[in-house]
Amino acid sequence: MPLLIIFIIIPLIELAVILKVNSFIGIGWTLGLIVITAFVGVRLLRKQGISTLLRANQKMQQGQIPAQELAEGFLLALAGALLLTPGFVTDALGFTLLVPATRKALVHKVIAFITPRMMTASSFQATGSFQEGSFKDVHSHTDSQSSHEKITIEGEYTKDDK
């Protein structure tokens, strides 16, 4: 539901701002400004994205987890999406995310938001290991075994749709 509200409210705000800017400077300049901010934003995004990617690669080569760089990469991707969305409000938000100081302040919040979810997701991973003899031998059937005991039979099959 919150996403639906965002996808309804943001375009309405953008439209209102575009119409207001249009009334001051005209349609040609308004459209030109929207296109120019997209191009400038993409160039800045490419430069900062490559820098972040190189830092992440460097940390991985040192055997460290590039958590901060991954969070910055997420914020840069969000900035790119905002900059490519036509409008002045989304461009302002996108350019704000391109400022390194703003991004660094938000990186810690992104990591704090994601870390508990990663811990919860990782708790469902298998922790045991396979050991020899841990599976019951299917072929060693004794008479003392109950007929209600389930037996797994391995095999292959082919589905013929004739």
UniProtKB/TrEMBL annotation:
Question: Which Gene Ontology cellular-component terms appear in the entry?
Answer: membrane
Query: What name appears for this protein in its UniProt entry?
Result: Protein FxsA (Suppressor of F exclusion of phage T7)
User: Mind telling me which InterPro entries this protein's record contains?
Assistant: FxsA
Its domain of life reads Bacteria
* Species in which this protein is naturally found: Oleispira antarctica RB-8
User: Which parts of this chain are annotated as the region Disordered?
Assistant: 135-162
Keywords, sorted A to Z: Membrane, Transmembrane, Transmembrane helix
Q: Does the keyword Lyase apply?
A: no
Give me the segments passing through the membrane: 25-45
Does this UniProt record's set of keywords contain Magnesium?
Answer: no
Q: Which NCBIfam families match?
A: PRK11463.1-2
